[in-house]
């Protein structure tokens, strides 16, 4: 693989993050004087880089989990002419329409699975809001 380099005086962290997500950037080198003088900016950039890497890994992981699910396996057995695998292309408009139709179901499932991972303060706040709103009716 060939690598090319560029030197930048200033850059936008969001642009660097987008370039990372598109695999245009493979590494970033910072000189020691820059590291000392721009510590906070470098810390912010490193957070964006870690987020981009984890986001890419998470996306791949979720996709693999969906393909390995019982629903997809059953679909593939029942519909051998229309199997769903890593090479299957799904029309974006079709997917958007399905997601719009199933929005309430997805929201319900999200709440069901994410509530145990929410901080206690958020759960308590939601509980209090429900009590207040229900007392008005």
Would you write up a description of this structure?
The chain folds into two domains: 1-88; 91-137, no CATH class. 67% of the residues lie in helices and 0% in strands. The protein contains seven helices and no strands.
Give the rounded overall mean pLDDT: 76
First-to-last CA distance = 66 Å
Please, what is the oligomeric state? single chain
Helix and strand pattern: HHHHHHH
Shape: elongated
How many extended strands?
A: 0
Note the total helix count.
Answer: 7
Number of domains: 2
Biggest sheet details: none
Uncertain residue segments: none
Over the alpha carbons, how many angstroms does the gyration radius reach? 23 Å
Strand percentage, roughly? Answer: under 5%
Characteristic key phrases:
single chain; 137 residues; mainly alpha; elongated
Task: Write the SSE topology.
Elements: H1 13-21, H2 32-37, H3 39-67, H4 70-78, H5 92-101, H6 103-114, H7 120-136
Helix pairs in contact: 1-3
């Amino acid at each position: 693989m060939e690598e090319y380099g560029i030197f930048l005086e200033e850059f936008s962290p969001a642009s660097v993050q987008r370039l990372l997500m598109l695999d245009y950037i493979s590494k970033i080198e910072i000189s020691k004087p820059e590291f000392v003088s721009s510590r906070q900016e470098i810390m912010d950039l490193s957070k964006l880089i870690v987020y981009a890497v984890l986001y890419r890994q998470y996306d791949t992981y979720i996709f693999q989990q969906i393909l390995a699910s019982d629903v997809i396996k059953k679909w593939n057995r029942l519909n051998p002419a229309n199997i769903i695998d890593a090479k299957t292309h799904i029309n974006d408009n079709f997917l958007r329409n399905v997601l719009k139709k199933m929005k309430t179901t997805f929201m319900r499932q999200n709440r069901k699975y994410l509530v145990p991972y929410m901080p206690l303060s958020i759960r308590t706040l939601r509980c209090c809001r429900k009590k207040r709103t229900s007392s008005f009716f």
